[in-house]
Structure formats: structure tokens, C-alpha cells
Design goal:
467 residues, 16 strands, Phosphatase 2c, domain 1, 23% strand, 2 domains, alpha+beta, globular, Serine/threonine-protein phosphatase, transmembrane, disordered C terminus
């Protein structure tokens, strides 16, 4: 059975950013969102390249050619980014996510790299189709973070894979059978990073696509609008010549950013979109896997490619390590309260923190509330601030130990008043009550970051059970 797509496209700056580095494209045959990054290094240019390449390559294909087609679109966009960087080194550092699908009328061929997302609402159930290529997602996969902790992690925007002109991008490709009534959402993290799945589900479930798009964007803005907000929303409907005849629609940076015309000395032209008669030469899966490497590279010497990759990786690691060296956090070490320098977790297999100081305070002596905070880590901008917080924890532990001793002797102990001059812990948002601590073993640890510590309420402070 053949279907059509009823689609809508939206892209806006949001409430905080100065320009729109997102781009989007939708047509009867393709849906795409691209989130550029690089700031002054032209993230808006990178996303515009991806969206315009999708537009220029767009056409109706059969089921068996969808993945090969999307692989070719991504590779040609990546090649063009490489040419732009070679032409103007100031563009070095730009990149873009790519999240979308080609539609044959009965099947979707999905292509994804980065942390933009694809969702499917089918039979009343919302499912995230794509898997983020981000640092916090890697920590979730390794069991070091919960999804709730990742949502507020200070480094949730660190992406591990994007289109940036380099080799070895390794996108995700998969196929999906279309069903009548399916609702598809492709969006940048300016939407998915603020609006949770429950609200996405509720807003996508309505019959009016125009209203749904407005409500989705409005909700992201209500929750802060910290990033550009771009989305493509489409419903699978019975085949319609009118819908199949609609023109493709570009949005965001694809309308605002001009792509420079680049001439490379050894240029033989960008590869053309694959044509049907050539697409039967190899299996779809094989073409999808290897099509990106078929195009020629502008960096001729293989050694240059290796060196460039090493420099990029080294630069990223160096930048994170420099930033992490200025950060401190309190966590557990061998059952004691301890101060660490750096960031919880690891990057590319290298720990981002080291132990600075182990206190004499046992975590088990703390009130239960603060035991949870230490298990999830308490962040600080300086060693002095971390020590001040640790001193306050020491006071709480001593008081709580006294309460427990008193409780052992009396059925109704009362909690001693705080020592004179004791300052409360810094006030930030608290972790959820059911947050669980990461399993720990002696030695260097990796802790999920919840920079959370609040002063207990009066009721908690007066309740001996808080200890």
C-alpha cells in the first residue's frame, strides 16, 4: 500500500541565541533537521550545507534505494564542508548534526548523526527512533548516568559524532515500514532537550499539525528557549496526488546563509545523486555502509588525514581537560567524604578527575539526605568553595552521629542545634527523591554529576529520622 506525507516545517532562533544555526527541510520524499555548531566557525553554514544538499538531491525512490540515497546525501554534504574548510581555514571547527529520512511511499530510510532526534508516534505510543551520539548518552549506556541526571548534566551538549568534513563519520542508518496514521517528528535539541517525552506525546497526538507545531515551539520557549528550535512534523496519510505534488520547504539557516562557491584545484566536481540504474549493482546495506567512502578526499596524503584526526581528538581532549581542571566536586572515596578536581566521568577512556583530599568524615554518618547528595556529587567552582562545603558536611555528620547516639539511649531524641557560625550548604536544585547512587569501589571513581545541594527544610532538620 502506498501513502503520502502531510508535513510541516518550523525553525526559529529561540529566546537566547543571537542567530539560527539550525536548518530544516521537508518534502513529500524527505524530512530533515540539521543543528549546526561552531559558533563563529560557521555552524549556520554547516547546517545550511546539509539542508541544501538534501533539497538538491531530493526525489522519489523505491524502497530498496532509500538508505543508499541518504548515505550519498550525507557524504556529499560532508565533502562540501571539507572543501569549505580547505578554502577558508576560519571555517575549521564547524559541524552539523543530520537527522532525517527519505520516504518511498511505503517505507522510511532513516539517517542520523549527532544529537538531533527522530520520534515516531504509532498506535498511541511514542518511541525515540534515534540514539544520541553524545557524551552523556555514552555515560548512560555505560550505566554511569540515569536519563534524569543526563537531562541536567552541564556537559549534555558535548557531541561525539557530527558531519564536519572529516573522514569516518559513521552515521546510523535503518529502515522503517510506514503505517497510516504514523506521526513522525525530527527535531533539534532545542526542542527535545527541554520538552520531555510525555509532553511531546501529548502535543503530537492532536489532529491539527499546524497547531501541534506552534504548541511544540511555544512549549520549548516557555521552558527557556535556550537554543534554536527546529522541527519537522509529518503524518502518514492515504496516498494523495496533491500532497505528493507539494514543493520542498527549507527553513532556518538554509534560507538565511549563503553558501560560498568553492573552486578546488583538483576538483572533479561533487558526486551526483545516485541514479536508479546504478543502485542495483550492490545490496542496499552494503551501499549504505560504504557509499560515504566512495567519494574522493580533498586531503590527498593519507598521513595528513591521520594527523588531522589526531589533532582534532587531541584538541578536544585538551580543551575538556583545561576546563575540567578549574572544576571541583565532592563525592565518596572509600566510604569517606572526598574532594575531587575535574569532572565526573571519562572521555575517550581517560579519567577527567583526580582525588584532591579525603576527609575524615564517613558518608554513613551524614543525614540520609546528604548521603544522597554526596553519592550524586556536589559541584563547586573552586577548591576553597569545595572545602567550605565539606566543612559544613563535617558539622552535619558530627551532629547526626550525636543524634544516633542519643536515639540509642532515648526513644525520643532531639536533634542538637547547628554549631554557632555553621553556614548552610549552597542552595541549588535537589536530586529526585528516588535518585540512586552509582555503585562504588575503592580507588578512582566515576560519578554522575548532579550539581545539587539544598539546605534541608525545617521539618527535615528537626526530624531525627533525617539521620
Amino acid at each position: 500500500m502506498t501513502f503520502s506525507l502531510d508535513f510541516r516545517v518550523h525553525s526559529e532562533v529561540g529566546r537566547v541565541r543571537q542567530n539560527n544555526q539550525d536548518a530544516a527541510y521537508a518534502s513529500p520524499h524527505m524530512l530533515l533537521v540539521a543543528d549546526g555548531m561552531g559558533g563563529a566557525a560557521a555552524g549556520d553554514l554547516a547546517s545550511a550545507v546539509a539542508a541544501k544538499e538534501a533539497h538538491s538531491s531530493d526525489r522519489r525512490l523505491g524502497d530498496e534505494h532509500l538508505l543508499e540515497h541518504m548515505a550519498g546525501v550525507m557524504q556529499r554534504a560532508n565533502d562540501r564542508l571539507a572543501d569549505l574548510v580547505q578554502w577558508n581555514p576560519e571555517f575549521d571547527g564547524m559541524g552539523t548534526t543530520f537527522c532525517g529520512a527519505a520516504f518511498s511511499g511505503s517505507m522510511l530510510g532513516v539517517a542520523h548523526i549527532g544529537d538531533s532526534r527522530g520520534y515516531l508516534l504509532r498506535d498511541g505510543e511514542l518511541k525515540q527512533l534515534t540514539h544520541d551520539h553524545s557524551w552523556v548518552q555514552a555515560l548512560i549506556d555505560e550505566g554511569r548516568l540515569t536519563p534524569e541526571q543526563a537531562a541536567s548534566h552541564p556537559h549534555r551538549s558535548l557531541i561525539l559524532k557530527v558531519l564536519n568534513g572529516a573522514d569516518g563519520t559513521d552515521p546510523d542508518f535503518f529502515e522503517l515500514d510506514a503505517r497510516e496514521g504514523d506521526v513522525l517528528l525530527f527535531c533539534s535539541d532545542g526542542l527535545s532537550g527541554l520538552v520531555d517525552e510525555e509532553e511531546l506525546h501529548r502535543l503530537m497526538a492532536g489532529d491539527d499539525l499546524d497547531k501541534a507545531v506552534k504548541q511544540l515551539a511555544a512549549r520549548a520557549n516557555q521552558l527557556g528557549g535556550y537554543d534554536n528550535i527546529s522541527l519537522v512534523l509529518a503524518r502518514v496519510v492515504p496516498q494523495s496526488d496533491e500532497l505528493d505534488g507539494r514543493d520542498g520547504v527549507l527553513a532556518g539557516s538554509a534560507l538565511e546563509r549563503r553558501i560560498p562557491t568553492v573552486t578546488v584545484a583538483d576538483d572533479e566536481g561533487y558526486p551526483e545523486p545516485p541514479v536508479a540504474e546504478d543502485e542495483t549493482e550492490h545490496g542496499v546495506e552494503e551501499n549504505a555502509r560504504y557509499a560515504p567512502s566512495d567519494t574522493k578526499r580533498r586531503w590527498a596524503p593519507p598521513l595528513a588525514v591521520v594527523l588531522a584526526a589526531l589533532l582534532l581528538i587531541g584538541g578536544a581532549v585538551w580543551g575538556v581537560r583545561i576546563y575540567s581542571s578549574s572544576r571541583y566536586f565532592i563525592a565518596e572515596f572509600d566510604g569517606h567524604v572526598a574532594i575531587y578536581n575535574g569532572l565526573p566521568g571519562a572521555l575517550l577512556g581517560r579519567e577527567l578527575n583526580h582525588l584532591v583530599e579525603r576527609r575524615g568524615t564517613l558518608v554513613e554518618d551524614l543525614p540520609v539526605y546528604y548521603q544522597r547528595l554526596v553519592a550524586n556529587t556536589i559541584g563547586s567552582d573552586s577548591l576553597e568553595g569545595a572545602r567550605h562545603t565539606a566543612d559544613t558536611l563535617d558539622d552535619y555528620a558530627r551532629r547526626c552521629a550525636a543524634v544516633r547516639r542519643e536515639r540509642a539511649l532515648s526513644p525520643s531524641p532531639s536533634l542538637p542545634s547547628p554549631p554557632p557560625g555553621t553556614d548552610p550548604l549552597p542552595t541549588v536544585s535537589a536530586p529526585p527523591p528516588d535518585a540512586t547512587a552509582t555503585a562504588q569501589t575503592p580507588g578512582q571513581q566515576n560519578y554522575p554529576t548532579v550539581l545539587a545541594a539544598v539546605t534541608p527544610t525545617a521539618a527535615e532538620e528537626a526530624d531525627p529520622e533525617a539521620c
